[in-house]
Write a structure and sequence with these properties.
It is built from six helices and seven strands, in the order βαβββαββαβααα. Helix 1 packs across helix 5, helix 2 runs parallel beside helix 3 and helix 5 packs antiparallel against helix 6.
């Protein structure tokens, strides 16, 4: 399936940095969710996925559900975090999508490690990926999946903290967080953002 013929009903964007240097770092939580989502869709016989070509500096996959008839793109911008908005704006422009059907998955300092929350719009909290997307789209009001990484100890530089690899203790929490995020995204694809947000946030509240 090619990008120009997809008639997308949604775009799921996982934020991160490309390359082995950044693999398994806190700032790449969005990439981890995107990979987990694609894996979940590949394992479901009622759905199909395929790698997309023609998306500049990005890794993208088409995903379709045979029963619900939704089609989405799972996108991992390879422009480094600071320029993530370039790829998002390109897909939005080519597919004439509404901004409320873009779901951006990113790491979040203001949530406990592995806490998952969904939110519509809001501040950017110094997150370079969110800033780039907001600048490219001309608005901050886009749906988000916030993947908690917690804040560093006092006196520790936040910029360095997010680029560190997950600790062994944090890695133990990853499977549960990834599962909840994937289930929330599927809820978004099958229903709508409000219902997905209510479900994910209630599930997360009971876990933390």
């Amino acid at each position: 399936m090619r990008n120009k013929n997809m008639n997308l009903s949604a775009l799921v964007v996982g934020l991160g940095n490309p390359g082995t240097r950044y693999k398994d770092t806190r700032h790449n939580f969005g990439f981890l969710v995107a990979d987990a989502l694609k894996k979940a869709l590949d394992l479901d016989p009622g759905r199909e996925t395929g790698k997309l070509s023609g998306i500049k500096k990005s890794e993208g996959y088409s995903c379709a559900d045979r029963i619900s008839a939704w089609k989405c793109m799972v996108l991992k911008p390879m422009t480094y975090m600071n320029n993530s908005g370039q790829a998002v704006a390109e897909v939005l422009r080519k597919n004439q999508m509404a901004i409320e059907r873009i779901l951006v998955v990113h790491d979040e300092l203001d949530l406990e490690p592995a806490c998952v929350k969904m939110k519509m719009g809001g501040g950017l909290a110094g997150h370079k990926g969110l800033q780039s997307i907001a600048q490219s789209l001309g608005t901050r009001e886009f749906p988000r999946v916030r993947m908690g990484i917690g804040r560093p100890q006092p006196g520790t530089d936040a910029a360095g903290y997010v680029l560190q690899k997950f600790t062994p203790g944090e890695r133990e929490l990853l499977p549960g967080a990834l599962d909840l995020a994937v289930r929330g995204i599927l809820y978004f694809l099958e229903q709508d953002f409000i219902r997905a947000q209510q479900w994910v946030n209630s599930q997360s509240q009971s876990r933390h």
